[in-house]
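ugh ok fine here u go
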Amino acid sequence: MDSVSTSTSVVISGVSRGLGAALARRFAALGHPVAGCARDREALDRLRADLGEGHLITVTDVTDADAVERWAGETVRRLGAPALVVANAGYISPQAPVWETSPADFRTTVDVNVVGVYTLARAFLPRMATGGTFVAVSSGWGRNPRGRLAAYTASKFAVEGFTRAIAQEAEELLPGVTAVAVDPGGGVDTAMLATCLPDEHTEYPGPEAWAQVAADYLLHQVPKEPNGASLTVPGP
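structure:
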């Protein structure tokens, strides 16, 4: 499969802001039905109004496996089997040495960034269209560690390993379905980046400019890459 047909649905977690919201708007503009989730009801209401009819934007917590399972079932019933699933929901805390990182912050980072990828993989991989691609959003800090961001680094290293493992499982048990980890590439000026790089985040392109390139890359280039690959979105 060289690309995703404009009639097929795209699933994205974490669509209330940042990369997820920008991707949802871009995929919808390209004619794809979008199934998106997040926890911020007001932000989702705004996104739903922007996208219009034909999409499924729901309040779902990616750390709740049962809720994600229900969302996946509803997605397939209403929009059909997705050809692209983007596990994008993420969390990062301000820079601090690990001994100043609270247990609550560490656990939230792991729950959202790792458990959130697991719940989407568990719910959507067996429901994906043949030729579909599961994308786990990773980070350059999931390949090269970053001091003072140990929790985030640990979570993204876990995402990389988890994705390679589920790629092997998909290759054996779900022929035609692939899983890859994708680093957004070079930094994007989002609220998350502002949290960890408060003095630098404005130096990077915004989510909308990034999504213009990223959507095309995810639709047309990623399906050609090897199963289990660690990839990077080209810069805008």
